[in-house]
Amino acid sequence: MTFRELVEKRRSIRVFGSRPVPEETLRRILECAILAPSAGNLQAYRIFVVRDGKRRQALAAAALGQEFVAQAPVVLVFCAEPMRSAIKYGDRGERLYSLQDATIAAAFASLAAADAGLGTVWVGAFREDAVRQVLGVGEDFVPVAILPLGEPAETPKNPGRLPWEEMVVEVS
Fold first, then answer.
1. Which residues contact 55 (CB under 8 A, 6 or more apart)?
2. What residue numbers bound the domain in which 36 lies?
């Protein structure tokens, strides 16, 4: 499939099958995430892989009760490392570049998962402190996205997008 077809095919999946994600498939997804562009190639983020059922349930609770987080056999949590960017880029690196790094990596992981026939959904609604507690990390990590990952057990319809004229502004 072409890249365009992949992007058009990808959907947000909130119902997952129980089959585990094959280790080699997960590795390829994570490799794609790590290949994502980053400011100054600092890769100012970390990807936490959560498979344990109790921790997945705790992440679902941290995500304001979004139970599908716990249903996925694997949950990826992308955390920015602001101080890693701040060393080179100061305040802007701390406030923005590290968040962008983690975001781009999560987007690449989502596309790699779709390419492998797996589903994900971007979860941004969560309590940061609760996510940090589940991961066992301190405030030097900023949770940016939770990405449940697994075999899709649903086929959502295309949600549509705003028209080109509302989204694209030509500046001459």
1. 134
2. 12-153
11 by DSSP, 3-state: which?
coil
Supply the CATH number for residue 102's domain: 3.40.109.10
> Is the CB of residue 7 less than 8 Å from the CB of residue 141?
no
Interatomic CA distance for residues 68 and 56, integer angstroms: 10
Sheet strands side by side (includes 119-120) = 45-50, 74-80, 142-150, 119-120
pTM for this predicted structure? 0.95
Nearest CA to 3 out of 162, 158, 112 is that of: 112
How many domains does the chain divide into?
Answer: 1
Nearest to 50 by CA among 170, 160, 133, 153: 133
Reading the chain (172 residues) residue by residue, the pLDDT tens digits are 899 999 988 999 999 998 999 999 999 999 999 999 999 999 999 999 999 999 999 999 999 999 999 999 999 999 999 999 999 999 999 999 999 999 999 999 999 999 999 999 999 999 999 999 999 999 999 999 999 999 999 988 888 899 999 999 999 9
In a domain, 3, yes or no: no
